[in-house]
Amino acid sequence: MGFQPVKFYQTGTYTVGNRLLAERSVQAGELRSNSINSGHRACQGCGEALGARYAIDAAMAGSNNQLIAVNATGCLEVFSTPYPESSWQVPWIHSLFGNAPAVATGVAAAMKVKGRKEVRVVAQGGDGSTTDIGFGCLSGMFERNDDVLYICYDNEAYMNTGVQRSSATPPAARTATTMPVGAEPGNPFGQGKNLPEIAMAHGIPYVATATVADLRDLEYKVRRAMTIRGARYIHLSVPCPLGWGTASSDTIRIARLAKESGMFPVFEAEYGEVTGVSKIRHQVPVEDYLKPQKRFAHLFGKTPHPETVARIQAIADRNIRKYGLLEEGSN
Amino acid sequence: MLKQTEGSKAVAEAIALCRPEVICAYPISPQTHIVEALGEIVKSGELTPCEFINVESEFAAMSVAIGASAAGARAYTATASQGLLFMAEAVYNASGLGLPIVMTVANRAIGAPINIWNDHSDSLSQRDSGWMQLFAETNQEAVDLHIQAFRLAEELSMPIMVCMDGFILTHAFERVDIPSQAQVDAYLPPFEPRQVLDPAEPVSIGAMVGPEAFMEVRYLAHAKQMQAIERIPQLASEFREIFGRDSGGLIRTYCTEDADTIIIAMGSVLGTIKDTVDEMRAQGHKIGVLGIISYRPFPLEQVKAALLNCRRFVVLEKSLAVGMGGIVATDVRMAVTGTGLKGFTAIAGLGGRPITKASLHKLFREAKAETLPPVTFLDLDWDAVNKQLAREKQTRRSGPVAENILHDKGIVSAKFG
Amino acid sequence: MSNRPFAITLKPGTSLANLTGTWRTERPVYLNRLPPCNNACPAGENIQGWLFHAESGDYQQAWRVLVQNNPLPAVMGRVCYHPCENACNRGQLDSSVGINSVERFLGDEAIKQGWKFDAPATVSGKKVLVVGAGPSGLSAAYHLACMGHRVEIHEAGPLAGGMMRFGIPKYRLPREVLDAEVQRILDLGVTLKLNTRIENIEQSMQDGHFNAAFLAVGAHIAKRTYIPSGDAAHIVDAVSVLRSMEGEDKPMLGRRVVVYGGGNTAIDVARTAKRLGATEAIIVYRRTREKMPAHDFEVEEALQEGVMIKWLSTIKQAEVGTLTVERMELDEHGVPQPTGEFETMEADSLVLALGQDVDLSLLDNVSGLEIKNGTVQVAANMMTGHPGIFAGGDMVPSERTVTVAVGHGKKAARHIDAWLQGASFDPAPKSEIATFDKLNPWYYSDADKTVQPILDIIRRQTSFDEVQGGLNETNALFEARRCLSCGNCFECDNCYGVCPDNAVIKLGPGKGFQFNYDYCKGCGLCVAECPCGAIAMVPEET
After folding, report:
1. Rounded CA separation A156/B390 (Å)
2. How many CA atoms lie within 13 A of C371 on its CB side?
3. Percent helix, strand, coil in chain C (nearest 5)?
4. B261: β partners
5. Which terminus of chain C is more exposed, N or C, with fewer CB under 10 A?
6. Residue A4 located in a structural domain
């Protein structure tokens, strides 16, 4: 993997900055872009707001501030640009829920035709716009290898409309449309799509997953993506305190547990081949990840569902096997 | 330069002369020949710089155009029928954002039943989308309207559909005068966007607007089209100065000065109507024609003025407001409110049904005699319709309507028995 | 762009008009919690404070911060039993930070580089007498001198150092290290009078025009216990043995040496005996290893060197060449009880290491003093019942370690300074302790403790070379960087980074951060992701 965590120096590269390291993160910089400014209306502890600033600031840094952002409809759009106030510091456009990749293609085409090669284009959306309604446009953008970096902020449901299921909602999760009732409470098993792998199947130059729990890795991936021309995809895990039923202060912890349990594999791929995997540092059982989330509360309630937890553990185990998420010789 | 060419090809050449910078193409009949020709022009290097993008849907086509236009590029696409409906959300978005995209609509019926032939249901379905809609009568006018459309769209920062009848125009070989690049360049200045995505001067385009400002935004879109009512005739006259011919404008009249009866229509059918009118005038009928070029904005004043001296009018339209009647007719009636003029609606040519001079002769004479019902379905096979209605009265599960009618008409009797 | 389309196109960054701080029900505040190491340090060292500088490789600055509280880092880095390390939160993660070894590194580095203390900034014109040049006296002298007072140390012995010289064997504390650190204190202008026994403190103060005195004579008188013995039995006390190690004539203990006692001194003397050539050095202790007051690592080192320990045993009788030993049993309260089972063991000498008493003769006839259990009672400000006479170290009731003594010296100096000004010194109230649960240890790199080199066993058994080696610069730096900075911001930028509302203002290197309460929504992410527990949520005032 391109990103080399610094092994030591008190906190090494685990923290946002480190006074002892010359290599600072973008977020540690006093002059970072703050692409999304204060005053936005995201909920307290919003993972998406955080992830978007992380990602877009890094993209700004990776493009010498020559960036145009396209935004699908969704929380990020709504909380950042309610008339008359915009939080964006970068040129930004919102068109529709399902067309951000295509709009971005158009912007990129305009820049190309105008000979402004230095201007880079980022499209962004939540998991609903990415994996569901905008999937056709996304696939088209990938297939044509348009010069767009698409970032999916995955919070695993339609949060803006009130937490309804998307094709990124994990099994057993409670959403407003997959209530924890009936024979199989929550979201059914065996559904949903793995968008990073679908992206990889397009053979595009770069695909990566990342998490708000690992800023350096995320910044590395965005900056790496910015060095590449063509279609690129980054799938970013951004917990939603509202939809997941977690404390606003737990957003990063939960994202960390998602990674450390194997539920959210963090890797990168070039031209359809996995080229790097971010290893699990301290493996935890999925239970540790699920329990703090109210959307999984029915698994641990008065009638616990250990068999369901075991099925989720099996998913994590499969991820761990498939992507080789554990260090050689570790547990 | 005069040439005998296919309508689609002529339009493609005209589009190329307008130096679009981004062209998004998704194939749908009968628009295909336009984007095919443009694709070749771009790929050959004849039009540069230009990005020709083969998108995955009409929705994407309009979306790519939105992105390109917002980033300051002159953007063009073409569609028809189902394609227009599939992109509808983006159609509204483009106008809402005030992006001066020009789109050719090769007018075609909307299914089901699926039908690839011409009528105006598609673009009229987008009547309230905020797009301007200009209807071409001939391929020459289609060529000219596109050139004017870019100028108008970019002046007002609003998108325009140039509507040309599918197959009837798009696939017709006619003599067309293709302007020179110098003429077009003289008429159409480079695109100077009103708003643009530029890192040098960031803006946030596409904000969420609540009740406190939404009506104003909508009104401003309306105000733009009202401005267009003034600009369209001016642009047509400027066009004449450079290109030496009359083309465009809001409406076009033919033999209306002394007419007691005026036939109103849009698009290529005006040709057949004029031929019929010529024949009827030869027989002494005082009949004239009003062609509407600008369907949106709808030139209420101009239409009223054109009709003021007649006694009756017939709106012959290739569209149907199901459950109500005419679509264009409604607008015309709005224009003549208070004049006491007698108006008739004729729904004609849906799904490509030929509109023959014979039928028009009969229709116009009945109009003159004022024996027409308020709404006429030209050349409707009442026998087939009545049979089906009777069947439906008898049996709840009476079977598929289209097949039944084909059966009744004896077209597929062998197959369906 | 003035021609922006109305409402749908907005100026960038205009959301600043929306003050989301009004959403808050709790607000984050930066605070400094007391690191457990600092809290545990008897000398009151700002351990985290000096580690901070060591982390960046600025050893001189680290040393300067260190010596603000303790002028003897090279000594302390060797002989301190480092309660700081026992308290260290890192112990709950992998193993505690090797604070002691870094302290030693800094102390040694200071000696190597010849770093000196800063000259006092002021001259007070006051004169203070310090009695005793042990750790407590030296510490007090140092601090008083730094405060601008003239200090004279009167030491009864021939050399400075007290128990550091006469109690702690060379293999634990090389004398050149001690000498260097003592000299550095004297270089501040402190006068040291050796072989000067104070007979009457009040008289001495009067004669020397001292405004105050600090007594730190230590506890040098070995405790005895009654053991029936033959006249010729060779019984000596540990204090004498260790003291005589500093003289010309090394003590003659024989080939089989039995040491009676269970404290660190017992261990020291047994290990010394071994080095002096004893084939057997046996410690007889009446309780078990768990109950032994000696520090475990010293017991371990002693065992490695071949010292033997006879647990649950008391010495009943000593004759020439033999001892009678009774086996003991712990009762349900853990108190050893005699069993009546006896055995004999061969011994050329018996060394008693049963603790020490204070020589209080200099206090005879001083008014107002309270003596209890052989120690001088002092108030919270270290002052005895006699105004102007303060006391510390082993002669006052406390744990008798070099570190505690150094702490006493500092504390007394501060109170003496205040007293001399007619004021009182009120130490700042202690902050809340940065306990492990306040930390987010995820962020710290995995790093096991650096193991200090240990002298090979043969040389340990045969020479007085220092057993424990020091760290080199590389591993001292590594060890310093293992510090978690519990409870105190070390500018990792996490709060600045993880705030979804950009409501943390970075003030620049060394200046820390500030919350922008106009926008802080009170989500608490900064608190949760602060590695070191330097932020807390407090309820918003209504």
Report:
1. 54
2. 13
3. 35, 20, 50
4. B287, B312
5. C
6. no
In A72-212 the beta strands, taken as DSSP E runs, fall at: 92-94, 120-126, 149-154, 206-211
Binary contact (B204, A88; C-beta < 8 A): yes
Spatial distance between the Cα atoms of C499 and C494, rounded to a whole number of angstroms = 8
Chain B residues with CB under 8 Å of A66 CB are 199
- CB crowding A240-258: b at 16 or more within 10 Å, else e: bbbbbbbbbbbbbbbbbbb
Q: Is residue A24 part of a domain?
A: no
**C260: closest CA among C223, C221, C290?**
C223
Cβ under 8 Å to B: C residues 11-50: 11-12
Question: Pairing relation of β-strands C280-284 and C308-310?
Answer: parallel
A177 within domain boundaries:
yes
C2 pLDDT higher than 70 = no
Per the structure block, which two tokens stand in for C499?
A: 């705030």
**pLDDT in the model for residue C1:** 43
Domain with A178 in it: 41-323
Average pLDDT over residues C518-529: 98
The label of the residue with tokens 């023959």 reads: B356
pLDDT in tens, B30-70: 999 999 999 999 999 999 999 999 999 999 999 999 999 99
In a 13 Å sphere around the CA of C483, the CA atoms on its Cβ side amount to 31
CB-CB contact of C267 with C299 (8 Å): yes
- State whether the Cα torsion B259-B262-B267-B269 is positive or negative: negative
Amino acid at the residue B198: D
Q: How far is CA C46 from the centre of its chain?
A: 11
CATH of B254-377, one of 3.20.10.10, 3.40.1170.20, 2.60.40.2080, 3.40.50.920: 3.40.50.920
Count of the separate structural domains present in chain A? 1
Cα(A35)–Cα(A29) distance, integer angstroms: 13
Query: How many A-C residue pairs are in contact by the CB < 8 A criterion?
Result: 172
What's the start-to-end Cα distance of chain A, in Å? 21
- Dmax over CA atoms of chain B, in Å, equals 71
What is the number of residues in chain C?
A: 542
Give, for A107, the enclosing helix (H) or strand (E): helix A100-113
- Spatial contact of B35 and B83, defined as CB atoms under 8 Å apart: no
3-state SS class at C158: coil
Residue C324 burial (10 A CB sphere; 0-12, 13-18, 19+): middle
Mutation for testing the C interface, residue in B204, B209, B217 having most C CBs under 10 Å: B204
End-to-end CA distance of chain B: 55
Distance, in Å, from the CA atom of B225 to the CA atom of C27, rounded to the nearest integer, reads 52
Give chain B's residues under pLDDT 70.
411-417
Taking alpha carbons only, the member of C481, C485, C486 closest to residue C447 is: C481
pLDDT in tens, A70-100: 999 999 999 999 999 999 999 999 999 999 9
Scanning the structure block, which residue is given the tokens 């009777």?
A: B390
- Dig out the tokens for C186 from the structure: 């004297």
Q: What is the CATH number of the domain that holds A56?
A: 3.40.50.970
When pLDDT is cut at 50, 70 and 90, the band that residue C474 belongs to is confident
**ipTM of the predicted structure?**
0.96
Residues B35 and B25: beta-carbon distance below 8 Å: yes
Chain B residues with a Cβ under 8 Å from any Cβ in chain A: 21-22, 24, 49-51, 53-57, 59-60, 62-73, 75, 89-90, 93, 97, 197-199, 201-210, 212-213
**Overall CATH class of domain B2-243:** alpha beta
The residues facing C538 across adjacent strands are C27
Q: Which residue type sits at C246?
A: E
Whether C537 and A59 have beta carbons less than 8 Å apart is answered as no
Q: Which two tokens stand for residue C42?
A: 């008897």
> Which distant-in-sequence residues (6+ apart) come within 8 Å of C4 by Cβ?
B195, B203, C10, C11
Task: Report the pLDDT value the prediction gives residue C458, as an integer from 0 to 100.
Answer: 80
